[in-house]
């Protein structure tokens, strides 16, 4: 099935706009101007609809490529996101190297939400990817959430729960970089649109940090672009691209 059937622009152009918006912290109007300078005249409201449609799909299709914790020591924390004038809570987990593990947007900040997030993050891991240590702040909701997950068998019983403040500096710094992408949005209207957009931000942040490098054949932003296009069946397949790179290498060496 063609994911871009009925669109006035090709899949490559649509993904170009979505990727730029989610990677560089632009407003929709800024992106409209930048695309017009490159000969693509599209309204900012259309770009908004593209982001809502394809950002979450991009995260879903590429999850198996970027979501691979490199360490079994996790840092878990939540940050604040304003939705329709009210604060909501973005739960996030990274490993000790700063690689994104998972995220979850909730309207509440309590043990139930923390349990739902940690359960989601652990459930998506292979046995060898599950954490041996989880560091959080001193919020009581995490203590209760981890205790209940262990009791239900959804979290390894030997997981060590630590509450050391300085160990969470890694995720606090990562929050700041994510907020730089969120700032131009100037507030979301609904939880649904907020979560869809944040999914795009998170996957592009993960790729920018080098996650999924195994599938990035050129190890650069062009390789990231090709990874996303392959996920939607746009352009040549990975084998064709690999053969092209090999041929170029031998030509350069000759």
TrEMBL record:
Keywords: DNA recombination, DNA-binding, Transposition
Lineage: superkingdom: Bacteria
One example of a Gene Ontology biological process annotation: DNA recombination
Stretches assigned to the Integrase catalytic domain: 65-244
GO molecular function: DNA binding
InterPro entries for the chain: DDE_dom, Integrase_cat-core, IS_Transposase, RNaseH-like_sf, RNaseH_sf, Transpos_IS6
Physiological role: Involved in the transposition of the insertion sequence.
Protein name in the entry: Transposase (Or an inactivated derivative)
Species name: Roseovarius pacificus
Lineage: Bacteria, Pseudomonadati, Pseudomonadota, Alphaproteobacteria, Rhodobacterales
């Amino acid at each position: 099935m063609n994911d871009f059937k009925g669109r006035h622009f090709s899949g490559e152009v649509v993904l170009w706009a979505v990727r730029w918006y989610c990677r560089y912290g632009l407003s929709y109007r800024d992106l409209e101007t930048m695309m017009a300078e490159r000969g693509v005249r599209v309204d900012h409201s259309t770009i908004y609809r593209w982001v809502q449609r394809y950002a979450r799909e991009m995260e879903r299709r590429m999850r198996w490529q970027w979501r691979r914790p490199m360490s079994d020591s996790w840092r878990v924390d939540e940050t604040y996101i304003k939705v329709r004038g009210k604060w909501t809570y973005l739960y996030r987990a990274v490993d000790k190297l700063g690689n994104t593990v998972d995220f979850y947007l909730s309207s509440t900040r309590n043990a139930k939400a923390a349990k739902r997030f940690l359960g989601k993050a652990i459930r998506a891991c292979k046995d060898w990817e599950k954490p041996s240590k989880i560091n959080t702040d001193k919020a009581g909701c995490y203590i209760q959430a981890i205790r209940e997950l262990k009791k239900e068998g959804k979290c390894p019983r030997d997981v060590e729960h630590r509450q050391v403040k300085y160990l969470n500096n890694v995720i606090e710094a990562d929050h700041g970089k994510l907020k730089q992408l969120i700032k131009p949005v100037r507030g979301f209207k609904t939880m649904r649109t907020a979560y869809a957009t944040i999914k795009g931000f998170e996957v592009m942040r993960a790729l920018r940090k080098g996650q999924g490098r195994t599938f990035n054949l050129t190890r650069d932003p062009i390789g990231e672009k090709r990874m996303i296009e392959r996920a939607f069946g746009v352009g040549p397949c990975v084998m064709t691209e690999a053969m092209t790179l090999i041929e170029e290498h031998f030509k350069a060496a000759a």
